[in-house]
Amino acid sequence: MVLIMITSWIPQGKETIVGRKYTEVMREYPGESFEKAVLPLGVVPTEKGTKVISIVSVKEGEYEKAIKRITKRMLSLSSVADLNYQIETLLSGKEALDLIGLGIPKKLPM
């Protein structure tokens, strides 16, 4: 399973502007069948503004479509209010452990 994490930083005082633009962008580029929001929006205020994290899981073989779609959304959003963002591709815990020859434990500590 491929996970894509999008982290955005919104300058203080620009949250309403970005929020409005976000709803416009999501109407223009709605979720597709090849992507599923694991974490649609995780929001935390910081001393420099607001940090927003989204995580999307992508169906196998659909990474290229998903990364292009996500990038289009973010390019549209970044035109507003000095919004900065970063897109990262993540491995699941199982995938990471498999790479180093370990299996995922049956019970994970919380």
Question: Characteristics of this structure?
Answer:
four-stranded antiparallel sheet, 110 residues, 3 helices, globular, alpha+beta, 4 strands, Alpha-Beta Plaits
Plain-language structure description:
The chain has 110 residues and is an alpha+beta fold. The chain has one domain (2-99): ACT domain (Alpha-Beta Plaits, 2-Layer Sandwich), CATH 3.30.70.260. It contains 3 helices and 4 strands. It has helices at residues 15-28, 63-78, 93-99, and strands at residues 2-11, 35-46, 49-58, 84-90. It has a 4-stranded antiparallel β-sheet with strand order 2-3-1-4, covered by helices on one side. Strand 2 (35-46) and strand 3 form a beta hairpin. The two termini are 22 Å apart. The model has no long low-confidence stretch (mean pLDDT 89).
